[in-house]
Amino acid sequence: SMSEIGRKNLVTMTRYIQKNDKLPEDKRSEFALLFSAIQLASKIVGNSMKRAGIESQFGVTGTTNVHGEEVKKLDLIANDAFKEALVESGQVAVMASEEEEEAVIVENTTGKYVITFDPLDGSSNIDANVSVGSIFGIYEKKSAGKNGDTSDCLQAGRQLVASGYSIYGSAIIMVISLGRESGVQGFTFDPSLGEFVMSHPDMKVPENGAIYSVNEGNSAYWPKATSQYVEYCKSSGEGKKPYSARYIGSMVADVHRTLLYGGIFMYPADSKSPNGKLRYLYEVAPLSFIVENSGGLATTGTKRCLDIVPDKVHLRVPVFMGSKRQVLDVEEYFKKFP
Ligand code: AHG
Ligand code: MN
Ligand code: MN
Ligand code: MN
Description:
Its cofactor is Mg(2+). By secondary structure, this protein is of the alpha+beta class.
C-alpha cells in the first residue's frame, strides 16, 4: 500500500494504466503487460547507456542498416532489449523496428498488438553523452490469419491505440498516450523504487511558442515554403521577436523540449531527401500521436501526419510538429509556396 512505501499520491505507470477508466478492462490488463515490457526494455537501455563508457560499448558495430546508417553497438543492444521484452510479454503479434530489414512476425502467440519502434533515437549523438531516446507505437493486429503479417504495420498513425517514448537524459523519463481521450502523461524513473512514477500529469503543448528546431545546415536544399517559414521564425516586427534556435539532433529530445516549452520541431523535405529523413512508423507517427493528443499538431506541410497510410515499413515523411500556432503558420507557407 502507499503508506508502506511512505509516499502519498504515488502513481506508478502500471497503477495509472490499471486505473485508466477511459479504457475497457481487458485493454487495461493487456496494456499493463505491454507497458511493463516497454518499461523493462527502457530500464535495460538506460542502464546500458550509463555503463557504456565503462564497458566499452560506445562506437560502431561496423555494419550498416537498411537506411544506410552506421549501426552503433548501442543500437543493437537496444533493439535486442525491446524485441526480447516485447515477445516475452505475450501480447505482440508483429514488430517493426528501425534496425530490422523486415517486419518481425511472432509465432505461436495469442498476442494481438503490433509494435513499431525506434530502439535508440539519436544514436549518432551517443558517444558525446547527449540525450537519446526510444520511440514506440502500438496498433491492433488487423489481418485475419493466425499469425500477423507486414500489412498489420501499414496502418495510418490515426489507428494507433497508444504510443510513447523514453528519454535517457539527466533522468529517464517516459511519456505515453493511451489514446486521445487519455491525453499524455509523463513518468520519471525512480531508481530507488525501480518504478516509473507519474511526474508530468496531463501534458499540454503550449498553443504558441518561440523556439524553432531544425537542421539549418540543409537550408541550401530547402523548398521555398520551408526557407520562407524559417526566415519568418527569425524575423521581428508587429510585436513578434525572433524565435530562439534549439536543435539537439535527437528527435526525442527535440520533441520532448517542444512539448514542454512549445515551438516547432521540423525535419523538412529537401532536394537531396525528397521525403526528409525521419521514418513514419518509428518516429513520425508515434510522436505525432503524442503531440496531437497533448493539444499540438503535426503536418508534412500539406497533410496531417496521422492521416498518412504507409506503403512500406521504412517509409520516410517530412514533418513539422509542435505548438498549434507554429504548425498552422507552416501550413500557410506551404499554401503560399506550393
Ligand atoms: P536514429 O538515431 O534513430 O537513426 O535517428 C536519428 C534522427 C533523429 O533522431 C534526429 O532528429 C535526426 O536523425 C537528426 O538528423 P540530422 O543529423 O540530419 O539533423
Ligand atoms: Mn538510425
Ligand atoms: Mn530515430
Ligand atoms: Mn534509431
